[in-house]
Design brief:
By secondary structure, the protein is α/β, with parallel strands linked by helices. It has a single domain, classed as Aminopeptidase (3-Layer(aba) Sandwich). It is built from 8 helices and 10 strands. It has helices at about 50-60, 75-80, 130-140, 165-175, 190-195, 210-215, 220-230, 230-235, and strands at about 15-20, 25-30, 35-40, 70, 105-110, 115-120, 145-150, 155-160, 175-180, 200-205. The strands form 3 sheets. Strands 4-3-7-10-8-9 form a 6-stranded mixed sheet, sandwiched between helices. A hairpin with a 5-residue loop joins strand 1 and strand 2. The longest helix has 13 residues, at about 130-140. Bound molecules: zinc ion. Zinc ion (ZN) binds near residues 44, 47 and 151.
Protein backbone atom coordinates (compact mmCIF):
# COMPACT_ATOMS: atom_id res chain seq x y z
CA UNK A 1 0.00 0.00 0.00
CA UNK A 2 1.16 3.54 -0.67
CA UNK A 3 1.71 5.93 2.20
CA UNK A 4 -1.45 7.99 2.63
CA UNK A 5 0.46 11.18 1.83
CA UNK A 6 1.27 9.87 -1.68
CA UNK A 7 -2.27 8.94 -2.68
CA UNK A 8 -3.06 12.25 -4.33
CA UNK A 9 -1.67 10.95 -7.63
CA UNK A 10 -1.44 7.65 -9.50
CA UNK A 11 1.60 5.37 -9.25
CA UNK A 12 1.45 4.74 -12.99
CA UNK A 13 0.21 6.47 -16.12
CA UNK A 14 -2.96 5.51 -18.01
CA UNK A 15 -3.04 4.51 -21.68
CA UNK A 16 -5.42 5.94 -24.27
CA UNK A 17 -7.91 3.60 -25.95
CA UNK A 18 -10.07 6.04 -27.88
CA UNK A 19 -11.89 9.37 -27.89
CA UNK A 20 -15.32 10.31 -26.58
CA UNK A 21 -18.02 12.05 -28.63
CA UNK A 22 -16.56 15.42 -27.56
CA UNK A 23 -12.98 14.29 -28.19
CA UNK A 24 -12.06 13.56 -24.56
CA UNK A 25 -9.31 10.99 -24.13
CA UNK A 26 -10.64 7.57 -23.14
CA UNK A 27 -8.00 5.94 -20.97
CA UNK A 28 -7.31 2.88 -18.89
CA UNK A 29 -4.71 1.87 -16.35
CA UNK A 30 -3.11 -1.37 -17.57
CA UNK A 31 -2.45 -4.42 -15.43
CA UNK A 32 1.24 -5.02 -14.65
CA UNK A 33 0.99 -8.60 -15.97
CA UNK A 34 -2.32 -9.62 -17.48
CA UNK A 35 -5.79 -8.08 -17.24
CA UNK A 36 -7.69 -11.09 -15.90
CA UNK A 37 -10.12 -8.55 -14.49
CA UNK A 38 -11.36 -5.25 -15.92
CA UNK A 39 -12.92 -2.83 -13.43
CA UNK A 40 -14.71 0.22 -14.81
CA UNK A 41 -16.57 3.17 -13.35
CA UNK A 42 -18.49 6.15 -14.60
CA UNK A 43 -20.28 4.71 -17.61
CA UNK A 44 -23.20 6.74 -16.25
CA UNK A 45 -22.10 10.34 -15.73
CA UNK A 46 -24.61 10.87 -12.94
CA UNK A 47 -22.75 8.29 -10.85
CA UNK A 48 -19.48 10.17 -10.21
CA UNK A 49 -19.00 8.51 -6.82
CA UNK A 50 -18.06 5.31 -8.70
CA UNK A 51 -15.21 7.18 -10.42
CA UNK A 52 -13.88 8.72 -7.21
CA UNK A 53 -14.00 5.50 -5.19
CA UNK A 54 -12.32 3.42 -7.94
CA UNK A 55 -9.69 6.12 -8.45
CA UNK A 56 -8.93 6.10 -4.74
CA UNK A 57 -8.66 2.31 -4.74
CA UNK A 58 -6.06 2.47 -7.51
CA UNK A 59 -4.20 5.36 -5.87
CA UNK A 60 -3.95 3.34 -2.65
CA UNK A 61 -1.67 0.74 -4.27
CA UNK A 62 2.11 1.07 -4.27
CA UNK A 63 2.36 -0.53 -7.71
CA UNK A 64 -0.06 -1.16 -10.62
CA UNK A 65 -2.37 -4.15 -10.03
CA UNK A 66 -0.75 -7.29 -11.36
CA UNK A 67 -3.89 -8.74 -12.88
CA UNK A 68 -6.50 -6.00 -13.08
CA UNK A 69 -6.97 -3.16 -15.56
CA UNK A 70 -8.94 -0.09 -14.51
CA UNK A 71 -11.10 2.47 -16.32
CA UNK A 72 -12.00 5.31 -13.97
CA UNK A 73 -14.22 7.18 -16.45
CA UNK A 74 -15.98 5.18 -19.17
CA UNK A 75 -18.14 8.23 -20.00
CA UNK A 76 -15.90 11.28 -19.44
CA UNK A 77 -18.23 13.73 -21.21
CA UNK A 78 -21.18 12.62 -19.10
CA UNK A 79 -19.10 12.93 -15.92
CA UNK A 80 -17.92 16.41 -16.92
CA UNK A 81 -21.46 17.55 -17.71
CA UNK A 82 -23.17 15.62 -14.94
CA UNK A 83 -25.43 13.71 -17.32
CA UNK A 84 -26.27 10.00 -17.24
CA UNK A 85 -25.77 9.73 -21.01
CA UNK A 86 -22.90 10.82 -23.21
CA UNK A 87 -22.79 14.16 -25.11
CA UNK A 88 -25.17 12.73 -27.73
CA UNK A 89 -27.78 11.98 -25.09
CA UNK A 90 -27.21 8.25 -25.37
CA UNK A 91 -27.26 5.94 -22.37
CA UNK A 92 -24.04 4.03 -23.11
CA UNK A 93 -25.22 1.16 -20.94
CA UNK A 94 -28.07 0.57 -23.42
CA UNK A 95 -25.92 0.99 -26.54
CA UNK A 96 -24.19 -2.41 -26.57
CA UNK A 97 -24.79 -4.74 -29.54
CA UNK A 98 -26.88 -7.36 -27.77
CA UNK A 99 -29.57 -9.67 -29.13
CA UNK A 100 -32.18 -7.62 -27.23
CA UNK A 101 -31.01 -4.11 -28.28
CA UNK A 102 -33.99 -1.98 -29.26
CA UNK A 103 -34.31 1.56 -30.71
CA UNK A 104 -37.06 2.98 -28.47
CA UNK A 105 -36.24 5.66 -25.88
CA UNK A 106 -35.29 4.16 -22.55
CA UNK A 107 -36.14 5.62 -19.18
CA UNK A 108 -34.59 5.92 -15.77
CA UNK A 109 -35.99 7.30 -12.57
CA UNK A 110 -35.26 10.93 -11.65
CA UNK A 111 -34.51 9.73 -8.13
CA UNK A 112 -35.05 6.67 -6.01
CA UNK A 113 -37.86 8.53 -4.22
CA UNK A 114 -39.71 9.52 -7.39
CA UNK A 115 -41.49 7.34 -9.90
CA UNK A 116 -41.05 10.13 -12.48
CA UNK A 117 -39.06 8.88 -15.43
CA UNK A 118 -36.48 10.59 -17.63
CA UNK A 119 -35.93 9.49 -21.24
CA UNK A 120 -32.63 8.87 -22.99
CA UNK A 121 -31.74 7.36 -26.34
CA UNK A 122 -30.16 3.91 -26.70
CA UNK A 123 -28.42 5.39 -29.76
CA UNK A 124 -29.43 5.34 -33.43
CA UNK A 125 -27.96 1.85 -33.73
CA UNK A 126 -26.18 -0.68 -31.50
CA UNK A 127 -22.61 0.42 -30.75
CA UNK A 128 -23.21 3.79 -32.44
CA UNK A 129 -21.30 5.72 -29.80
CA UNK A 130 -17.50 6.13 -29.80
CA UNK A 131 -17.32 5.33 -26.08
CA UNK A 132 -19.13 2.00 -26.54
CA UNK A 133 -17.08 1.05 -29.60
CA UNK A 134 -13.81 1.90 -27.86
CA UNK A 135 -14.75 -0.11 -24.78
CA UNK A 136 -15.67 -3.14 -26.87
CA UNK A 137 -12.38 -2.79 -28.75
CA UNK A 138 -10.42 -2.63 -25.50
CA UNK A 139 -12.18 -5.72 -24.12
CA UNK A 140 -11.37 -7.58 -27.35
CA UNK A 141 -7.73 -6.61 -26.90
CA UNK A 142 -7.38 -7.30 -23.17
CA UNK A 143 -9.59 -10.42 -23.09
CA UNK A 144 -10.46 -10.12 -19.38
CA UNK A 145 -11.91 -13.23 -17.73
CA UNK A 146 -14.13 -11.11 -15.49
CA UNK A 147 -15.53 -7.58 -15.54
CA UNK A 148 -16.80 -5.38 -12.74
CA UNK A 149 -18.90 -2.37 -13.76
CA UNK A 150 -19.55 0.12 -10.96
CA UNK A 151 -22.89 1.91 -10.78
CA UNK A 152 -25.25 3.63 -8.35
CA UNK A 153 -27.48 3.50 -6.52
CA UNK A 154 -29.56 0.36 -6.49
CA UNK A 155 -27.79 -1.07 -3.46
CA UNK A 156 -26.96 -4.54 -4.81
CA UNK A 157 -24.53 -6.59 -6.84
CA UNK A 158 -26.11 -8.15 -9.92
CA UNK A 159 -24.55 -11.46 -10.89
CA UNK A 160 -26.82 -13.61 -13.07
CA UNK A 161 -24.69 -16.67 -12.31
CA UNK A 162 -24.53 -16.09 -8.53
CA UNK A 163 -20.86 -17.00 -8.86
CA UNK A 164 -18.40 -17.58 -6.03
CA UNK A 165 -16.78 -14.24 -6.96
CA UNK A 166 -20.15 -12.49 -6.75
CA UNK A 167 -20.91 -14.11 -3.41
CA UNK A 168 -17.51 -13.08 -2.08
CA UNK A 169 -17.92 -9.48 -3.32
CA UNK A 170 -21.42 -9.22 -1.85
CA UNK A 171 -20.30 -10.51 1.51
CA UNK A 172 -17.28 -8.21 1.65
CA UNK A 173 -19.15 -5.11 0.41
CA UNK A 174 -22.29 -5.65 2.46
CA UNK A 175 -24.43 -5.39 -0.70
CA UNK A 176 -27.15 -7.98 -1.43
CA UNK A 177 -26.36 -10.35 -4.30
CA UNK A 178 -29.14 -10.53 -6.91
CA UNK A 179 -29.59 -12.45 -10.15
CA UNK A 180 -31.25 -9.44 -11.78
CA UNK A 181 -31.84 -5.77 -10.91
CA UNK A 182 -35.50 -6.51 -11.54
CA UNK A 183 -36.21 -4.73 -14.82
CA UNK A 184 -35.23 -5.18 -18.46
CA UNK A 185 -31.97 -3.56 -19.56
CA UNK A 186 -31.78 -4.14 -23.34
CA UNK A 187 -28.40 -3.27 -24.82
CA UNK A 188 -26.67 -3.20 -21.45
CA UNK A 189 -23.03 -4.02 -20.91
CA UNK A 190 -24.10 -6.76 -18.52
CA UNK A 191 -26.16 -8.50 -21.20
CA UNK A 192 -23.43 -8.00 -23.79
CA UNK A 193 -20.72 -9.41 -21.52
CA UNK A 194 -22.85 -12.44 -20.74
CA UNK A 195 -23.38 -12.99 -24.47
CA UNK A 196 -19.59 -12.82 -24.94
CA UNK A 197 -19.14 -15.41 -22.21
CA UNK A 198 -17.42 -12.93 -19.87
CA UNK A 199 -18.92 -13.02 -16.36
CA UNK A 200 -19.68 -9.52 -15.11
CA UNK A 201 -20.65 -8.08 -11.75
CA UNK A 202 -22.86 -5.00 -12.06
CA UNK A 203 -21.93 -3.45 -8.74
CA UNK A 204 -24.50 -0.90 -7.59
CA UNK A 205 -23.39 1.29 -4.71
CA UNK A 206 -25.98 2.10 -2.07
CA UNK A 207 -27.46 5.62 -2.09
CA UNK A 208 -25.09 6.81 0.59
CA UNK A 209 -22.72 9.75 0.84
CA UNK A 210 -19.29 9.35 -0.72
CA UNK A 211 -17.63 9.67 2.69
CA UNK A 212 -19.53 6.54 3.72
CA UNK A 213 -18.54 4.71 0.50
CA UNK A 214 -14.89 5.29 1.45
CA UNK A 215 -15.54 2.96 4.38
CA UNK A 216 -17.99 0.44 2.89
CA UNK A 217 -16.79 -0.02 -0.73
CA UNK A 218 -13.25 1.34 -1.03
CA UNK A 219 -11.57 -1.37 1.12
CA UNK A 220 -13.15 -4.17 -0.96
CA UNK A 221 -12.11 -2.57 -4.24
CA UNK A 222 -8.56 -2.19 -2.93
CA UNK A 223 -8.52 -5.90 -2.05
CA UNK A 224 -9.79 -6.78 -5.52
CA UNK A 225 -7.14 -4.65 -7.26
CA UNK A 226 -4.51 -6.26 -5.02
CA UNK A 227 -5.54 -9.62 -6.45
CA UNK A 228 -7.83 -10.89 -3.71
CA UNK A 229 -10.25 -11.88 -6.42
CA UNK A 230 -7.90 -14.66 -7.51
CA UNK A 231 -9.07 -17.15 -4.92
CA UNK A 232 -12.82 -16.59 -5.36
CA UNK A 233 -12.35 -16.66 -9.12
CA UNK A 234 -10.33 -19.83 -8.97
CA UNK A 235 -8.27 -18.32 -11.77
CA UNK A 236 -4.98 -19.67 -10.42
ZN1 LIG B 1 -25.52 3.27 -13.66
Amino acid sequence: MRPMSHRGTFADQPVAFGRSALGSRLEYFPAAERADLLVLAGIHGEEPDTTVVLSRALRSLAAPPRRAAVITAANPDGLARGTRGNANGVDLNRNFPTADWQPDPITHRWSLRHDSEVELSPGPAPCSEPETAALIGLIAELKPRHIISLHGHLDCIEDPGLSPFGRWAAERSGLPLVESVGYATPGSMGTWSAEQGIPILTWEFAPEAIESLFHTQLPVLIEILQGEFAAPLGAG
